[in-house]
Design a protein that fits this description.
single chain, about 400 residues, FAD/NAD(P)-binding domain, D-Amino Acid Oxidase, Chain A, domain 2, 3 domains, 16 strands
Length: about 400
């Protein structure tokens, strides 16, 4: 089998959110020419997914936004309802297929960018940069050389951590026989569902119209459920809690997101970098990734434009330290998860809390938020963390 070789200023491995966003921002800043290696149709291409984030003002990918909400709601296990308008922030929903089509079309219109359908097998440093060995969709061997290589593929195993929970979920896109949803309000957390023996569970509702919505059942715990168990929980939530009446399940999505205090390496060679969830972009305490990917992509493109390449920390040290304490407190059962989150959303203005969760809070705001959590169990957890060993987990997970 003959082998082809091609050169590019930057090679981006993976055509998901992180890979496509970085390629787009590299072309926007004129940093370098870029080649994206995207897996061909088959088992390596993930199923369509939903990404959500909050932002203010017009966004770079608004054309792919399926829906957005100005009002957000949290429902406590005791029936408390907290509804807020976190202006100027809006909660936005993207679907991976239209997002990919949008960014790919923009890359196709740029003379310094191209997308190659191929399976990447290995990435390694070579003199003057790095190489990616691939097999194309037609079965040809292809080696891509780049001054820099940015790898967004999922890690085969997560790094050692003191605490690792999983955010695992299944969602139904449902259509009801009669109007049952308020399209102006999204439910971030609805704790009116049976709670597991370990961890916590909640419902999540993103209405697309008065009769159409994404309804999810989510757990923070150590082990995923079977599909049948998720469906049973969803049926209970839609029938007995939301009381939606007759409905049709049009499609479903399912996933697992690691919630871990592991330290993700962002550089694995002189010219090889990890980006996206593989580079630690997922916020440990929430599972949100998309907004951090945008910040990371813009910063990398600016660094390449200025003559170098760095992958900045997706989240600040203080935020990661606070997340580590929360994960440990939840895992040990020192704090009651449903009550913790319900109280936090009730005591802290939602706009301030969302900015904190996005890493945009000031030290004083973070201190104030900390005081509105169960102080004694959180301090006890913070005191023990430095003495806990980091252990290699047994499995990895997927990015939501």
């Amino acid at each position: 089998m003959s082998e082809e070789a091609e050169r590019s200023g930057a090679v981006v491995v993976g055509g998901g959110a992180a890979g496509l966003c970085l390629a787009y921002w590299l072309t926007r800043t004129g940093s370098t020419d870029v080649t994206v290696v995207e897996a061909p149709e088959g088992p390596l291409r993930p199923a369509e997914r939903t990404w959500c984030y909050w932002d203010e003002g017009p966004g770079e990918f608004d054309e792919a936004v399926v829906a957005s909400w100005a009002r957000l709601r949290v429902r406590g296990p005791d029936g408390r309802v907290i509804t807020s308008d976190p202006a100027p922030l809006r909660y936005r929903m993207l679907r991976s297929a239209p997002f990919g089509e949008l960014v790919t079309s923009r890359l196709a219109a740029c003379p310094t960018a191209r997308v190659v359908r191929a399976t990447a097998h290995s990435v390694r440093d070579v003199p003057g940069g790095a190489e990616v060995r691939c097999t194309t969709a037609e079965g040809r061997a292809l080696t891509l050389y780049g001054r820099y290589v940015f790898d967004s593929r999922p890690l085969p195993r997560l790094p050692p951590a003191r605490t690792q929970l999983l955010q695992h979920f299944r969602g139904w896109f449902v259509r009801t026989a009669s109007p049952r949803f308020d399209p102006a309000v999204a439910d971030l957390m609805d704790f009116r569902v049976p709670q597991p023996a370990h961890g916590l569970a909640f419902g999540y509702v993103l209405p697309l119209s008065s009769r159409h919505a994404l309804v999810e059942y989510t757990q923070f715990s150590r082990t995923p459920l079977t599909t049948a168990a998720y469906d049973s929980s969803l049926r209970h939530y839609t029938d007995d809690v939301l009381r939606l009446g007759p409905l049709t399940v049009e499609s479903a999505e399912q996933g697992v997101i690691p919630m871990t205090d592991a330290r993700f390496p962002r550089r694995t060679g002189k010219a090889v970098f990890r980006i996206g969830a593989a580079g630690g972009a997922t916020r440990p305490a929430t599972g949100y990734t998309f907004a951090a990917v945008q910040r990371q992509s813009r910063a990398i493109a600016a660094a390449v434009r200025d003559g170098g390449a760095t992958v900045p920390r997706p989240h600040g040290r203080r935020a990661l330290a606070m997340d580590a304490v929360l994960l440990r407190a939840l895992d040990t059962g020192r704090v009651d998860g449903p009550r913790f989150f319900t109280d936090l959303f009730q005591r802290v203005p939602m706009e301030r809390l969302l900015r904190f969760l996005d890493g945009a809070g000031t030290p004083w705001e973070e201190f104030g938020i900390g005081l509105r959590t169960p102080v004694v169990p959180m301090l006890r957890t913070a005191a023990e963390l430095p003495f806990l060993p980091r252990r290699t987990p047994t499995r990895s997970g997927e990015s939501r």
